[in-house]
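Summary for the funding panel

The consortium committed to producing paired sequence-structure records for every protein in the target list. Below we show the first two records in order, beginning with the earlier of the two.
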Amino acid sequence: MGLLGGELAFAHALTAQERESVMALGSRRHYPADTHLLTEGDRSSHVMILDRGWVTVSVSTDRGATRLILGLRGPGELLGEMAALDPHPRSATVRALGPVDARLIPGDAFRRFLALHPRVSGLVIRQLTFRLRSADQERSALASLTVLQRLASRLTELSAAAPSGPYAPSRAGPAPGGPGPAGPVVHLAQDELAATVGATREAVAKALRLLRGQNIVRTGNRMVEILDPDLLALLADGHHEEIPPPRV
């Protein structure tokens, strides 16, 4: 499972000349927090390159208003390329987590640029392939892993995120009466965590209770503090038998 792109962001993989040329195709736009930059089902064809800020990529589910967060994208990432390359509606919604600056490029201009720059076209194909593999892994996890495993895997991933990430871990101060130094803190509410693992808020709350009972995490308002990353990683890998009884 993985929300964060594991490869170099699109714009950062371009040469200086390529980056200058592709950015010149569009105009810079600013979006406040919670704005939809792209909307699932829309038939627009422009692409966007993030200059500043982070966004979520999500799709609707069979549970009505519930959404599944497929990815987190940050500076340098290319968004909306699928709708620019085929005539189908957009497959996901992109929402700003905070203030976002992005370069908006018309789809036809982007397609012409790719036709004239085979190396850049190869970068787009590589990105599409990477995201397809990631989506396949997410579907496999939803079908085969428990909510506890998916949650442990997601917390492990986000707690190791780069400091510039949207949910980057911070260091909490020592907890009163706690067992030594505090661990990394992932700043997410339970409903947001649920959306990243494809589960209900109730199921995630139950899993967090189990993790708290093992002193693996501590929770608070929009935060999960990782107290024992090694045990959390074991749970993510499905090694439940290696988890000791609750500590008292």
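The next record, for a separate protein in the list, is shown here:
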Amino acid sequence: MNNTIAGFSKLTKEDKINWIANSYFSDVSEAISIIKKYWNTDLKIQQLHDEFIENTITNFYLPLGVAPNFLINGKYKTIPMAIEESSVVAAAAKSAKYWATRGGFKATVLNTEKIGQVHFKYNGDVLILEYFFKEIKSKFLVATESITKNMQKRGGGILDIELRNKTNLIENYFQLHVTFETKDSMGANFINSCLEQIAKTLKEEANIFEGFADIEENIQIVMSILSNYVPNCVVRAEVSCKVEELAEKNIENPLEFAEKFVQAVQIAEVEPYRAVTHNKGIMNGIDSVVVATGNDFRAVEAGIHAYASRNGQYSSLSHAKIENGIFSFWLEIPLALGTVGGLTSLHPLVKLSLEMLEKPSAKELMEIVAVAGLAQNFAALRSLTTTGIQEGHMKMHLNNILNQFQATAEERILINKHFKGNTVSHSAAVEFFEKLRK
């Protein structure tokens, strides 16, 4: 079968679905039925979702859960989390409850600078280029005034523009490295609009600059784009208490627990194979809140993992120590987030999530997201260094196994009762199912 089609984007939604169902599925009516089951019955909401991206055929749902009792900088928060992985929300809520009685989480935004770059080639005298840049630098700010005017009213805008020589990496390669403050917006469109205008001005001024008169194709613009690596847009989240205060049901010897916990973090600091999984656990908390609040989790992921490699080797984002009888656990991560613009004013559940968080500023959202990541990491390390991570995770995963086998209410009762005293695994659950059904 030839599964190619011309003009697919011009088809109606119904025709797109019919073509896909007939091209790829043996049971056409079942495929169409599943696709349409996930449509929203509210036509306005469905149209909104249809227009978020191109060639929409249906909605792909993620569960939206909440983790209550987060004490952050002295205020209690209930954090919305959109994620499909079992035990993540439960682990975050457990950490929130644990630390609420030990002083809570402290969070501080260290900086909020964002970066964009104009990449270009130049094949002339570098000293002449440097002189040219100094002469026209102020013109970049004038040329972008119409774009930056509203942002400047909110206290943001272009902070600085630098000429950077990258010819040691690529022949004739230079860049304008631009620093921005975007306040409560993530700022991607704002930054890219500024950069394109700066690139246009750069080329226009180069064409009339007498110092370049003898250079053919003096400046060649390659591209203008923001960077998702924002090492100067950083937030710190931390918890600390006396070592003896760490005690609870599964932590009978708090000093032993604290020492083992610190060792586990140290392993992630020096061993990349462990660091990747360690940081993935942090991202379980971060991504779920980023998605729930309508922010770009791919940009956040890329920037954070680049930050984890900034010293030449991929390493743990979190750190821990015991000093003078005090246990401390913290992380510092780059986060470029927004609470205005984009999906924040369009997606009904994003608006609801932000209202649940009491309409935070971008800085406050940075703090909340960082805390969610630290809480998730604490929960994982506590399990790993005490009971092991699979016990709790597989008990949560048991629900997925029950759904997979379409267990009856009676079977669910018997299976849950059986695994209260037995280790949960997929094979053990399948084996017990088969015995029940025989």
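Regarding this second record: The chain is about 50% helix and 20% strand. The beta strands are 64-72, 75-82, 106-109, 114-122, 157-165, 173-181, 219-227, 234-242, 318-323, 326-334.
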